[in-house]
């Protein structure tokens, strides 16, 4: 889904734990232009609620009894103009976070993330600037690794980029926002956004997280 232009960001909270849903809803609803448009107790409820409420952001638990967050994320990202997905995880116990990111999730949050950072994450992903925590993202990516065929495919894909586009892709992999890339590379924000769009189009990827994963595969 393109960046949100309206003042209100609609969020769908998906978690089978009623206490987690309640805490997230209390934290987010009405906070800095955010409205919780709905709650789901399992991934199989997500399509109907997305149709009903058109959320900009879905906070998606990974482990649910009927349809888990990985499958639900894949299904959502196959829809036209899908909402952004941020996976929720306890991190140490969830092994599918990286697969969710590859499936098109815009980022992830630990369930014990401070409230202010969760609000910030919702705003960032709604604006098209996924929430990438460099430290935790690097740890997740290091767990997965890439075999030689993945590495070569990634390197071949990156060779299709111009030198400037490659620099932007690497900056994305380092967790830099558009504003940070603009400042570090002495480019205007609009130029950075244009380069990001070109990178996504040339690499046939959906979001910045997938760019980061591709760069990581190429560097292994």
Automatic annotation (TrEMBL):
The keyword Transcription regulation applies. The modification 4-aspartylphosphate is found at residue 61. Pfam families: GerE (PF00196), Response_reg (PF00072). GO terms for molecular function: DNA binding. InterPro entries: CheY-like_superfamily, NreC/VraR/RcsB-like_REC, Sig_transdc_resp-reg_C-effctor, Sig_transdc_resp-reg_receiver, Tscrpt_reg_LuxR_C, WalR-like. Residues 10-126 form the Response regulatory domain. GO terms for biological process: phosphorelay signal transduction system; regulation of DNA-templated transcription. The keyword Zinc-finger does not apply. Residues 154-219 form the HTH luxR-type domain. This is LuxR family two component transcriptional regulator. It comes from Actinomycetospora succinea.
């Amino acid at each position: 889904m393109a960046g949100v232009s309206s003042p209100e960001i609609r969020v769908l909270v998906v978690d089978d734990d009623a206490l987690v849903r309640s805490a997230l809803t209390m934290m987010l609803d009405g906070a800095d232009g955010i409205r919780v448009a709905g709650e789901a107790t399992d991934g199989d409820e997500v399509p109907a609620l997305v149709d009903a409420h058109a959320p900009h952001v879905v906070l998606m638990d990974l482990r649910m009894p009927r349809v888990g967050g990985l499958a639900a994320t894949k299904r959502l990202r196959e829809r036209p103009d899908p909402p952004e997905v941020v996976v929720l995880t306890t991190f140490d116990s969830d092994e599918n976070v990286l697969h969710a990111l590859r499936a098109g999730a815009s980022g992830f949050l630990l369930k014990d993330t401070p409230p202010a950072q969760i609000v910030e994450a919702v705003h960032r992903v709604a604006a098209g600037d996924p929430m990438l925590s460099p430290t935790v993202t690097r740890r997740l990516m290091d767990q997965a690794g890439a075999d030689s065929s993945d590495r070569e495919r990634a390197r071949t894909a990156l060779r299709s980029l111009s030198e400037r586009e490659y620099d932007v892709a690497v900056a994305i992999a380092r967790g830099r926002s558009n504003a940070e890339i603009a400042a570090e590379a002495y480019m205007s924000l609009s130029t950075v956004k244009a380069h990001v769009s070109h990178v996504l189009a040339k690499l046939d990827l959906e979001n910045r997280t997938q760019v980061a994963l591709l760069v990581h595969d190429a560097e292994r």
